[in-house]
Amino acid sequence: MSKPIRGGLIAALLVGLALLTIVVAAVGYRSVLAAIGAVGLSGFAIFTLCWPWVLLLLGLAWFAVTPGLPLTHMPVLIWGRMVREAASDVLPLAQISGLVAGVRAAQAAGVAEDVVLASTIVDVTTELAAQFLYALLGVTLLATQLGGGPVGRNLLLLIAAALAFLLAGGVAFILLQRRGVGWVGGLAQRWLPGSIARADAVTTALDAVYRQPGRLAAGLGLHILGWLASGVCSWIALRLMGTGTPLSAVLAVESLMHAARSVAFALPGGLGVQEGAYVLLAPLFGLHAADMLALSLLKRARDLVIGVPTLLIWQAREGRALLGRAVKPAASPDA
């Protein structure tokens, strides 16, 4: 890792930690700890066990936009999605490390490079589209909650600007997909012979996916279910705290929080931004800031509980594969 990247990463982590500290200090750590204590170990276990079902939906969404794979390869992409989420949540380079790790995991299990790269690009596209629709749901619920007051109008304008940013980024990502693959391949050709041919293979695989609108619709639908299921998990955690929070309020806060995290993508794991968004949005729906901050910390603990073992298993598999490739030439007889 180069010094500029390392310096930027450290700066982002420090900013995120500072934001988190400010938010916890503003809310009061005693009330947050009390909310976490209300969940208890059994409640945390229930909350944690909800998440694999969300990961299952996300893995199925990836499989849906991966043409040519038999059903026997479905667990491969579910596992690859688990690795992607674990790396995004645990490793410092956030989304980039997650995408790379997910691709590596799928390739190691036998999925062709062009197929896994093209399907990852399309999977990210459908996930962004689903998130945008999820955020629109949150805006609709917020508009209903606030009515037509000046404060509500100003807040909605701010959120609309954030959604416009997400929409513009998503549209640009879609329009540049094919060109971007070819451009990267041409640039890499200087150092890696055959890169143009590999980029052409990825572009061909992309075209194959986009010629199947049924697959795109299935991927989009599964991602929408994934976003909603994630919100239901948060609602369950709040119910375990003893709150009578309605599901609609939780879905609204969750959707808008994730939109804020996407805008602040430079901060690893949305550190500080996630907590700040929860605290700012909670009162608008009659929720307690301490409960939402406790939910955020429970999420981070859950990500570690699931993510760290997942990454350790993935690294062990990678190590065995590398060892196998190193041993094979040594074991072969001389010509």
List the helices and strands and how they pair.
Elements: H1 3-27, H2 29-64, H3 74-90, H4 94-108, H5 113-146, H6 150-175, H7 177-188, H8 195-210, H9 213-240, H10 247-263, H11 273-281, H12 289-331
Describe this structure in words.
It contains twelve helices and no strands. The protein has one domain. It has 335 residues and is mainly α. The radius of gyration is 22 Å and the shape is globular.
What are the key terms here?
single chain; 335 residues; mainly alpha; 12 helices; 83% helix
> DSSP helix count?
12
Query: What's the overall average pLDDT, rounded?
Result: 78
Ranges with pLDDT <50 over ≥5 residues?
180-195
N→C terminal distance: 41 Å
Cα-atom radius of gyration: 22 Å
The main β sheet shows up as: none
Structural class of the helix and strand makeup?
mainly alpha
Number of domains: 1
Work out the number of β strands.
0
Could you estimate the helical fraction of the residues in percent? over 70%
Question: Which overall shape is indicated by the principal axes computed on the Cα atoms?
Answer: globular
Q: What portion of residues belong to β-strands?
A: under 5%
Which H/E pattern describes the elements?
Answer: HHHHHHHHHHHH
